[in-house]
Amino acid sequence: MKFKTVLWCFLVATTVSIAQGKKSKGDFLFYEYQYKGAITAYEKELSKKKLTGQQYLNLADSYLKVGNFKRASKIYLDIYELEVSKKDSAGIMSNHRFNKLLQSLSGISEKEKIDKLLKVRKTFSSPELMENANFNSELLASNAASELEFEIFNLEVNSPQSDFSPSFYNDKILFTSGRPQKSRKVYEPSGESYLDIFVAKVRSEGNAVNANSFTGIPSSDFHRATPFYSKELNNIFYMLSNTKKGKLAFNDKGKNALAIGKTNGIGDFSFLLKDLSVSFYYPFYDVATSKLYFAADFEDSYGGTDIYYVHTNHGQIMSAPINLGPTVNTPGNEIAPYVFENSLYFSSDIFYGLGGMDIYKSNLREDDTFSIPVNLGNGINSTYDDFGFIIKNNTNNGLIGYFSSNREGGKGNDDIYGYTVAEKPGIKTILIEGSVVNTSTKKGISNALVEVFDASGKSVKKNYSKDDGFYQFEIPWEDAIHIKVTKERYSNFSELYTKEEIEELQKGTLDVKVSLLDDLVEEREGQTVVKLNKFYFRKGKSEITSYIAKELDNVVDVIKNFPQLQLRIESHTDSRLGGSTNFRISQKRSDAIKKYLIDNGVPNSNILYAVGYGEDNLINKCKNGVFCLDVQHKENERSLIVVLNYNVLY
User: Phi and psi of 611, rounded to 5°?
Assistant: First the structure.
């Protein structure tokens, strides 16, 4: 299978000086991006002597670049197993390289081996990464991500060289190309011209023609690439080589990195992001939030290149770079951010994609977090590198946009493709979040199981609430779902939601209120009873008054929430009437309570006994013949709802 580097200028912007230390022929060829030649040279060297750990990794990387996944995976596994057994120098198999190992195994369909390695390498498998991997694996297996019909076409302006990074520019497009120009030097690692920005006219159907070098930015002999035009600011943001006095500028390790600058097209220019040790790529300015998004290879990234943003004031930077976090960024490379209608589109070469770089979509939330990135599926993605995705509403109908790919059938290395589509791409999902809260204390409950079922009753998602009670889940769209929340000693939550109700839930949060049984019961007279305010029947009567009914409704709620409880209803009187009369009255009162509970939804099976004790169990000295105040007699008149199996259950 044909497979190329995503963009040779992306991952190592310009050749790192190789004058430091002794280098082999394989090293020279590898660092010049000549991967086929590097393979030949390294294999020849390997037949004579042992390669260093770094050279062996370079060989594996070279095989991965040319699409020989079987040989690449063999070498990566050799290195990994040596590190695990501590028989070789540890540390060179970084999480970024480990992702390449998984990519190579994915290329030869070794899913079981991938799953096994993920279980072992705990430092690689963050909760966010595994959630993303499981979600996208299920999605791609179901083919749900490929339901939209994309009309894809290769642009007329493509050349035999690399053409990529399209950007809307009024009724034209800007793009990056390595095509030769008389005024431009050849960039040796690629054999193409130093990257430059071009402009092309767009026809009504979306194809682009008549490409010319773009003159709206300051001239340079070196890289100018990945443009983004902000109509609102009338500024062009783009990537360019770091230079000093007209020559490439290098850091103390011999690296020439890439910067991001902006210009208004009439001569004014300023650097926005510049660091000789860090490369910045693919700027995107979001006018709604005044954030400038970009990709960069900071040392503290999650993998290779990560996506960041900075706050700006009309394009002028006002904050330090902020990493988008582990939901978006992975041990792989993430590049080419683009925001459209509250969705972030970007590309990643994480192992669970279709191959190479894939385009993903993540929804932006109000709290500045991101939903699980969703692979856009076959068609827009391929087994090759697909990146630089942009989109807008089509004046004719639906939506239109462009992306870059090195898939088979193109005109050159990377080609720009146009597409039209009827609806916003990216599978529709259900995203619900909120908190599990204790009804009594109003505090969040940790470690509560939140489970989602589809219309057939199949469990589709399980999650646990965090320490503060927060929970969140995202699943492919269903027209009906059933949500259950459970935790031992707490009441259960169980609700069905229709399509319309699910749509409404997307707009806010779903806070689930549950009760702790310990808050609903208490110890009285040596037994566990349902906690109720004390109530009294009318003297000598057994009718359920409105006040008594209000208290008994609390018992109905307790049984509804804790249906496993078994009850005994017991009623007691004072000693002021005759003993047989008191027995009769207390029994009638227990029977009346039982009837009310059953009539209001408590199953008969939950009430094991309903007993009247009369005056047998007085709780003070007020027996027959003993003078007591009325308030003392009333202490003996009481009804209790005893929980018989409390100690058995908990």
Answer: -125, 140
DSSP state of 579: H
For 629-647, give the DSSP string.
-HHHHHHH-EEEEEETTHH
Radius of gyration (C-alpha) of the chain in whole angstroms: 35
In this prediction, residue 89 carries a pLDDT of 43
Burial 410-446 (b: 16+ CB within 10 A, else e): bbbbbbbbbbbbeeebbbebbebbbbbbbeeeeebbe
Burial of 99 (0-12, 13-18, 19+ CB in 10 A): buried
pLDDT band at 11 (very low <50, low <70, confident <90, very high): very low
Q: Cα–Cα distance between 228 and 388 in angstroms, integer?
A: 11
User: What does 272-323 look like in DSSP terms, one character per residue?
Assistant: EE-BTTB-EEEEEEETTTTEEEEEE--TTSSSSSEEEEEEEETTEE-S--EE
Whether pLDDT at 391 is above 80 = yes
Question: What's the DSSP call for residue 181?
Answer: -
With a cut of 60, say whether residue 10 has pLDDT above it: no
Alpha carbons 21 and 155: distance in angstroms, whole number: 45
Burial of 306 (0-12, 13-18, 19+ CB in 10 A): buried
- Contacting residues for 535 by C-beta, under 8 A, at least 6 apart: 545, 547, 548, 551, 639
Pairing type for strands 429-438 and 470-476 reads: antiparallel
Least confident interval from 89-98, 333-342, 403-412, 514-523 = 89-98
Cα 167 to chain centroid distance, Å, stands at: 27
Give the residue from 376, 422, 426, 417 showing the smallest Cα distance to 399: 422
